[in-house]
Design goal:
Blueprint (H helix, E strand, L loop, with lengths): L1 E2 L3 E8 L5 E7 L5 H7 L8 H9 L7 H7 L6 H15 L3 H4 L1 E4 L17 E5 L2 H10 L11 E3 L12 H9 L4 E5 L9 H4 L7 H4 L3 H9 L9 H12 L4 E6 L2 H4 L4 H6 L3 E9 L11 E8 L8 E7 L5 E8 L10 H5 L10 E3 L32 E3 L4 H12 L23 H12 L20 H4 L9 H6 L51 H18 L10 H9 L15 H27 L6
Length: about 600
């Protein structure tokens, strides 16, 4: 291998015409990766280091290329753990009794440690990876040369498979384990969702598997994800095999995979989840699972329980994932909150980027609607807030934000609630208090009339009248409810699309009561809510003692006044130089944590989340 300025030149040879030919591998980092690599190894490296270097070859691949291809290489600690789980399910002699095919092998990291070379098969789309696996045979890797081959699983016909493997598929697929960490890429990603990146359509929608099953099966948007395409071809074309795969958990519990689960029916045997960021090039704070399925047992996926390990391989307990979105025709919190009318003056806006924890970072209340790149309405501001749905919006915000997001719950789905919350006035008022004083309440008087001041001028010793008294009047039961229309139920359920959302037209609210949630007498708050109000009132009072203030300031405006804004990022600073303010805001936040703990059990009781 010869190092050039911006590429490696390799495999130099003289062709049949007597000309010198070679291959080239380009890089674009001014040799930075090359120099860092050789700070750690002598040239040429000793033979005993070859296998380790090849295992870490993924670190020399530029992150953008790995991300675009969906290549996230399996750490050795999780490969070893997964093989232990296979042994616990299938018995100590599982390698002798089963054939093992990694059909997305990369450089073979996942297969390291397996011993029965007669039964191990490895294929990958890239010839360069095949060449590396073949080269590893010289360092003692336990595989047969003809069991390593180039194969594009999303495009190639099974006629291209080695005869021995093809025979296993045709005659005894129940003795075949598809053991994979498939590529993970989709037609749209988070950057696209926030208007900061481009769509990945060509990555996930050009293969033959996509073309075939997007027509034959009604899988909705789930078929636009590469790992789904791997799973559905395995399930349909290698029937009765065992599938042991690393992947996200969305195919088990996401509302976008309802139709996929109608097709993919298998018995769950065992599995575990680990933090995604233990995989190279994965920065997200979400779980990656290793799940073992017996596809010969046609069982509908309802709920699974998996073991949880942290980055130190420490066992943290069990975690359940449920596929039953809710008992209300498999609906999510999205269908629930959009089923209510919004009559009267607009108080603000909120929205929904997705009914799970990973999208909670987009959740907020704002004064105006905003747009993303391309001029489309920002999902985070698409719902109107008025007096008629203020309580429901407060519940919507509270149940999503009062339990801390972690890597373990990141893919948990918020659901259409069970009956009972409508009559729990204390739960409703707790959620209203939580919403008023939460940091994601981004209402600002700089963008319009601030209707969210929960106090009177006298209570906070304001020097002038507030422009709006709506929130105080609402709390005191002084807002007269307007007549509401009867929901058009007629025994009809909402029309749900293939990816789990209601159609824009023709949606009939499901079993929503035609009653008003506007209080007709003063709200009675719980002790925990009162404590938050008292801490909030002290903060407002302190603000109004200052000069040159905005009399109509919101909670967000008050924080901004004391904390200031970073001149470079434009974001609010984390702390203030005013120690009195820091003490007051700290006290409010501590009381909000107590209020959140009080709300938490109700979230599960009413079915907004499943444990």
């Amino acid at each position: 291998v010869i190092l050039k300025t911006d590429h490696y030149e390799l495999d130099r040879k003289i062709d049949d015409m007597g000309l010198i030919t070679s291959k080239q591998s380009h890089f674009y980092d001014n040799q930075k990766a090359h120099k860092e690599f050789w700070k750690r190894y002598h040239r040429p490296p000793k033979t005993e280091y070859w296998d380790y270097i090849i295992n870490r070859r993924d670190l020399l691949v530029p992150p953008d290329i790995r991300s675009r291809k969906g290549s996230f290489f399996t750490p050795q600690i999780w490969a070893e753990k997964s093989q232990g789980y296979l042994a616990s399910v299938l018995g100590k002699r599982w390698q002798e009794e089963y054939h093992i095919w990694d059909l997305a092998a990369g450089t073979g990291n996942l297969l390291a440690g397996l011993t029965n070379i007669n039964n191990i098969w490895a294929s990958t789309i890239d010839q360069a990876d095949v060449d590396i696996m073949l080269a590893r045979l010289r360092s003692g890797t336990g595989m047969f040369r003809n069991h390593i081959f180039k194969f594009d699983f999303l495009n190639d016909d099974f006629s291209k498979l080695p005869k021995e493997l093809k025979k296993v598929i045709e005659e005894k697929p129940e003795k075949l384990i598809i053991y994979i960490n498939p590529p993970y890429a989709e037609a749209g990603d988070q950057k696209q969702a926030t208007g900061t990146g481009k769509n990945k359509t060509k990555v996930a929608t050009l293969g033959k598997v996509y073309e075939k099953y997007s027509v034959e099966l009604n899988l909705g948007l789930s078929i636009r994800e590469i790992f789904t395409q791997f799973f559905i071809r395995i399930y349909k074309e290698i029937p009765n095999c065992l599938l042991a795969s690393f992947s996200t958990l969305k195919y088990v519990n996401s509302s976008g995979f309802i139709n996929f689960r109608e097709e993919f029916k298998a018995k769950f045997l065992k599995g575990f989840i680990v933090p995604a960021n233990t995989f190279d090039n994965v920065r997200g704070n979400f779980p990656i699972g290793f799940l073992i399925w017996d596809t010969s047992k046609k069982q509908k996926i309802k709920s699974i329980s998996v073991d949880v390990f942290n980055e130190k391989i420490e066992f943290l307990g069990k975690k359940s994932f449920s596929s039953n979105i809710s008992n209300k025709q498999k609906l999510t919190i999205t269908q629930w909150i959009t089923g209510y009318e919004t009559n009267g003056e607009i108080l603000g806006y909120t929205g929904n980027n997705g009914p799970d924890y990973q999208n909670n970072k987009f959740l907020k209340i704002s004064s105006i609607q905003t747009k993303v790149a391309g001029g489309n309405l920002n999902n985070a501001t698409k719902y109107k807030i008025t007096a008629t749905n203020l309580i429901q919006i407060s519940i919507y915000l509270s149940v999503r934000l009062c339990i801390e997001a972690t890597w373990i719950n990141d893919r948990d789905q918020f659901l259409y609630p069970e009956d009972g919350w409508e009559n729990d006035k204390e739960f409703q008022s707790d959620c209203l208090a939580f919403t008023l004083f939460h940091g994601q309440n981004r209402i600002t008087s700089e963008e319009g009339i601030n209707h969210w001041i929960p106090f009177s001028e006298r209570e906070v010793e304001a020097k002038n009248n507030f422009e709006s008294h709506f929130m105080k009047d609402f709390i005191d039961g002084k807002i007269k409810p307007k007549e509401t229309k009867e929901p058009n139920n007629n025994g009809q359920l909402p029309i749900v699309s293939s990816h789990g959302n209601e159609h824009a037209r023709g949606y009939n609210p499901l079993l929503l009561e035609a009653k008003s949630f506007i209080p007709t007498k003063p709200i009675k708050f719980s002790k925990e809510a009162k404590d938050s109000f008292e801490a909030g009132r002290e903060l407002w009072k302190y603000y109004h003692k200052h000069d040159l203030i905005n009399i109509n300031a919101s909670y967000y405006d008050i924080r901004k006044f004391f904390q200031g804004v970073d001149s470079k990022s434009g974001r609010m600073n984390n702390k203030s130089i005013d120690e009195t303010y820091n003490k007051l805001i700290g006290n409010l936040r501590e009381r909000m944590k107590i209020l959140a703990k009080k709300i938490e059990p109700k979230i599960y009781e009413f079915g907004f989340l499943k444990k």
